[in-house]
């Protein structure tokens, strides 16, 4: 009505903009409010938000391959995964060092299990390789030690690698190997090692120094042994053989072991090169299988869509995303079944709860209190007890079937199958979730005054019309609240379907639990959980759009 | 209009009783008949049975005994929705999930009235309560007074001959209430509808009604037009309940020619009109309205008895003076005098004489 010509900001008495002075006045109040809710906020963050974030992260996280096989993965970048040829010798050589270290740290089985989710058989391939990897280059190592015994002597190695006192150290290599092992083992490799490679030998024998440093870090931190007293791994010797065979010039070297190195270089000259590819294929033929290599390359990046694809019955192939073979598709069916059954449960809860809630809200106080106790009584009973009770009721030799047979409604040989299927799950879960429907409905209905229905009847509406046109619309918020509660609880329910669901009545949550505790495929479990979460959020959003979340009243 | 024979009674209660628990009667032997077009108010303190009577008429409660007739037909067994009675509830009871127009349209829809007809009637009803522009609003977006008008319009839109109102103005502020009282009575008379109006507000009852039924303890204590009710209450409950009233207790000394002499408890004598006392020696409560007390005893006849009084308090109220006196040992005797040019202002502590015309003082039963 009143037209304000002044369009500038409204000022407070002291000339500051009113908005700012209001904010200042409210700040103390807001801070106090925040301090009051801080305990809850922290609790929710720690116990709720953080696990969800972790779950979301795990569903795409895939660092295990690149952490365990960093060098092999790096060389695979050059390999064209679609061609028919196996990766080159350099890949197999890099794989040798990665595998050796992984086997020492006992991490090779983990990456094997991870890749086995995508391509079955990889797990055993890695397990066998972990056992057999020390055999690769056996002949050459024997030849090396035949040339001079010192190559089997730990003190000699330690002295040669450390260099003379006071010499420049290659600390970069040391910290690189620490980090490499930390990534591999997912634990800290900080601490005193009692060893640092000399810069001179590091420049001369890069492979050997890297391998020896890794050995030294692992020995000192993980095994808690003294580096100088442990004979180096075969991988270190193989590295030395490779270094010597690469045609390095030893003439300028005068550090410890110079004589022995020259001798070994000469001695090894007529030895055959180590054939890593053949070595791995000798351990298991699987390494010659192109599919395995394609899988490794595909799942090498630190993040993957693989878990999510798996969760929606798809797979990643070099040709792109493709549906899995028909007989391997289970999650789509499970998601659909979970959704369908949750809707059924919600629907039957609405049908059963509405009259009860109506009675609760409209009966005289004494009767309704008694009824309320009956509603709450199951609430105070253990979930397991209630579910097991349904087992007793519904099984083929159970109470209901016995009664039906006794009444002659069902033939003895034609007893109804009511458990270990969808029916059993729907019945048991409807019963268990019923209070979650009744209580919000009741709390809404008890706020609907009786005079609305009276008014409707005085205006000429029949009992049914006044219920349907006047009472029911006002009770919809209760139905909405109860439905959301029951549906969301149902969609993630686990125990009851596990007990009474059999195979056809289980939910996606049972599969998630299986992947968490039995198959240990947490990534897939996280992906399934994330999809479930997204589905609930989408349904919530849709509900908000269609019904409006303001129409939901919990009390 | 007040005295109507039963033959053309529109609403009739015949020996109606109501009990909720089988032990106590909430309504005891109610007899009432009202002609078409009358505006009747049921007035009484809470728990007096007036709302129960209304609910029985509307059909939400069934009479335990007796018969209720509407236009000559017994309606005891007719369900509420077939009685065709409009009703305005205390809390308006506008359906919150419907717009104003939908609320008004509801009674027409359930009567299966065609759409165009419905729209016309809804519009007319809204215009009637000056709410023509509010059809699209929800009840929650309206003020109390506006909701009240809509509730009224909804009760009238299907053109019932009888409209019941259950304390419809209880939730409004004083000014709005007075305005709505005026509008409701006007509307009722314009449309010629019969109205049964329940209230506990006596001013409302007096200003709006053709007749008022004063309820107490499940009975009608008096059924009379407002002026009669105020000026000639039948018993001391009605006298106390309607308007301001002074009471003094005493014993009947003489009764003759429609005037009785009462000896007050302190021995003073005063004249009164016997209403429901019959024998000399009976205890009585005499009742006198504050504005009928005469301070200037010279204006009364020579034979009139007067009482001594002491001024306790003088309250200036603008148009009137309100003076509290101590009379016959009671400190709460109130008199009201008009603020006219020659009116004397009494001072606390002053000793005066008061008296009244015998017809203004009624000797009633003792409470």
UniProtKB/TrEMBL annotation, chain A:
Gene3D superfamilies reported in the protein's UniProt record: MetI-like
Segments passing through the bilayer: 33-53, 339-361, 367-385, 423-442, 476-495, 520-543
Domain of life: Bacteria
GO BP annotations, alphabetical order: transmembrane transport
Glycosyltransferase is among the record's keywords: no
CDD domains hit by this protein: TM_PBP2
One GO CC term, this protein: plasma membrane
All copies of domain ABC transmembrane type-1, residue ranges: 335-543
Chief subcellular location: membrane
Annotated membrane topology: Multi-pass membrane protein
Subcellular location: Cell membrane
Xref: InterPro entries: MetI-like, MetI-like_sf
Keyword terms, alphabetized: Cell membrane, Membrane, Transmembrane, Transmembrane helix, Transport
Record PANTHER family: ABC TRANSPORTER PERMEASE PROTEIN (PTHR42929:SF5), INNER MEMBRANE ABC TRANSPORTER PERMEASE PROTEIN YDCU-RELATED-RELATED (PTHR42929)
Similarity remark: Belongs to the binding-protein-dependent transport system permease family. CysTW subfamily.
Name by which UniProt lists this protein: ABC transporter permease
Native organism: Roseovarius gahaiensis
UniProtKB/TrEMBL annotation, chain B:
Keyword Transport: yes
Enzyme class: translocase
Keywords annotated in UniProt: ATP-binding, Cell membrane, Membrane, Nucleotide-binding, Translocase, Transport
Catalytically driven reaction(s): ATP + H2O + polyamine-[polyamine-binding protein]Side 1 = ADP + phosphate + polyamineSide 2 + [polyamine-binding protein]Side 1
GO molecular function: ABC-type polyamine transporter activity; ATP binding; ATP hydrolysis activity
EC number assigned by the record: 7.6.2.11
A cellular component term, taken from the record's GO annotations: ATP-binding cassette (ABC) transporter complex
SUPFAM superfamilies listed in its UniProt record: MOP-like, P-loop containing nucleoside triphosphate hydrolases
Pfam families linked: ABC_tran, TOBE_2
Record keyword Metal-binding present: no
ABC transporter domain boundaries: 11-242
Function: Part of the ABC transporter complex PotABCD involved in spermidine/putrescine import. Responsible for energy coupling to the transport system.
Subunit record text: The complex is composed of two ATP-binding proteins (PotA), two transmembrane proteins (PotB and PotC) and a solute-binding protein (PotD).
Family: Belongs to the ABC transporter superfamily. Spermidine/putrescine importer (TC 3.A.1.11.1) family.
Cross-referenced PANTHER family: SPERMIDINE/PUTRESCINE IMPORT ATP-BINDING PROTEIN POTA (PTHR42781), SPERMIDINE_PUTRESCINE IMPORT ATP-BINDING PROTEIN POTA (PTHR42781:SF6)
Name this protein carries in UniProt: Spermidine/putrescine import ATP-binding protein PotA
Protein species of origin: Roseovarius gahaiensis
Gene designation: potA
